Amino acid sequence: MKNNLSLKKSITLHKKIFSIYGLGNVGGPIAAAWLKKGAKVIGVDVSKNLLEEIKHGNSHKHEPFISEIFSKSLSKNALILSTDGVNASKKSDIKIVAVPVAIKNSKIDLNIIKQVIENISKGLKKGDTVIVCPSLPPGTCKKILLSILEKNSNLKAEKDFYLIYNPERIFEGRALQDIEENYPAIVSGIGKKSQIFAEELLKIISKKGVISMSSLEAAESEKLFEGVYRDVNIALANELSDFCKSTSTNYWEIIKATNSQPFCHLHYPGTGVGGLCIPVYPQFVINSAKKFNVSTKLIEFAREINDTMPKKCANESLKLIKKSKSKKMKIAVLGLSFRGDVYDSRLSPTYSVVDIFLKKGFQVAVHDPFIKNDDLLPKNVILSQNLSEIVKNASLIFISTDHKQYKKLTKKQLTNPKNIIPIFDGRNILNKKNFTGVKLVTVGKND
Ligand SMILES: NC(=O)c1ccc[n+]([C@@H]2O[C@H](COP(=O)([O-])OP(=O)(O)OC[C@H]3O[C@@H](n4cnc5c(N)ncnc54)[C@H](O)[C@@H]3O)[C@@H](O)[C@H]2O)c1
User: Fold this and answer.
1) 165 to each of 147, 180, 302, 375, how far by Cα in Å?
2) 100 C-alpha vs ligand 1 centroid, how far in Å?
3) Which of 30, 45, 342 for mutating ligand 1's site (highest number of atoms within 8 Å of CB)?
4) Per-residue confidence (pLDDT) for residue 68, from 0 to 100
5) What is the pLDDT of residues 226-254, one digit of tens each?
6) What is the model's pTM?
7) Contact 153/126 with Cβ under 8 angstroms?
8) What is the distance in A from the centroid of ligand 1 to the CA of 172?
């Protein structure tokens, strides 16, 4: 695969055209990063709704710069939107895959990525490059995706086309900045030529350069280990915070001191772990390990600890109130996002907390400053951005997400001075000084 023009030049002269499959939280910012470098991009997505939003300049509302970059690029014809994955593959040279991998009842569902790779394979040409970004069980690129690409195209990887794995490492809300500035890009290739091309290519957008891995499987594992580390560390925090309760000590005070030792990075305990990354990647490792008869006891146990946190916290909070036999009591749950200050509620522990309260016969109302509507909450649960409406007439307040704005809350905003109600702070987000005289129980604290 000879290349006379420098790679950078062939991209800016639109001699090498990109297609990006999936324009969501990850694919959108990747497309924007290449557009900023002067590339021509065909953005492919099955969501006609999303493509319409992009056309009207109101997509990616919570990711700075993306929508503006898209609008500018559409007007210059540098960005083309399509739902036709095969045609986009025919018309592009560098194909980037950024679609999700689902997990249902602990089973990994690769159908979406397989379908996208199938579409790419039908338009694959000599000299093309395929870059896979989603987090995957180790071996997926080589054992599953490679054969789809080769079989349908009649081409050979490394000889006729490059196959690269480049896991995305972004934090929602600052994804473009992460891609361009904050992390080195992890790259790996099916062979030496793919790998060298990956290094050369990703250096163009990644200011921190690249970390080149020796195999696709190593890079696939790297990404999963990031999630496993976080999940196990959070489980450890949950366990140690229980220990603190039993020894009448304060976890938060202790970890401040503990983490001043350079090898300690103890995480925070809380109501549970959500999102499509941290609770999901350990499952990829657990499932893969089973095939090789390798033990993953620690990882499984950490999952179990974190998965039981919503129930444990909900039950602990209920100890603060006496259930009335005569009237249905209301619990106000603060926070639906899986993490503070994000608009994403996928796999949020709040769903389990709400479910437990409903099953115990309480009325539940949820506040979230970032999420307006949600289809997964049961219909009898009110979701609102109006805090006073949610806490009105509540008998208990349960804080589920560490949104920064909760830090500033005061007694007056959450509880009626004539009828002070208890609060369970599942994230240690409230400022205790603002709640004198309130029965306030905080995860990891004794007072
Ligand atoms: N969100 C994160 O913070 C994050 C961070 C690192 C890695 N990842 C990885 O990136 C992957 C994608 O995550 P995301 O958050 O961008 O998901 P997302 O749901 O925000 O976006 C995925 C997009 O793919 C589109 N899509 C679905 N099927 C398609 C198909 N057949 N053809 C074309 N488009 C299709 C969807 O319409 C959607 O717009 C995940 O698997 C995850 O492993 C995510």
Assistant:
1) 15, 18, 28, 34
2) 4
3) 45
4) 97
5) 999 999 999 999 999 999 999 999 999 99
6) 0.92
7) no
8) 12
User: If DSSP codes are grouped into helix, strand and coil, which group holds residue 398?
Assistant: strand
> Boundaries of CATH 3.40.50.720 in the chain?
7-214, 249-447
Buried b (16+ CB within 10 A) or exposed e, 170-187: bebbebbbbbbebbebbb
Q: For residue 96, which phi and psi values (nearest 5 degrees)?
A: -110, 130
Please give the residue that has the higher pLDDT: either 105 or 10: 10
Residue nearest to atom 42 of ligand 1 (CA): 134
The length of the chain, given as a count of residues: 447
Beta carbons within 10 angstroms of residue 421's beta carbon: 20
Report which residue type is found at 108: I
Give the residue, 367 or 322, on which the prediction is more confident.
367
Segment 346-361, tens digit of pLDDT: 999 999 999 999 999 9
CATH of 249-447, one of 3.30.2320.30, 3.40.309.10, 3.40.50.720, 3.90.226.10: 3.40.50.720
CATH class of the domain whose range is 7-214: alpha beta
- Ligand 1 centroid to 2 CA: how many Å? 33
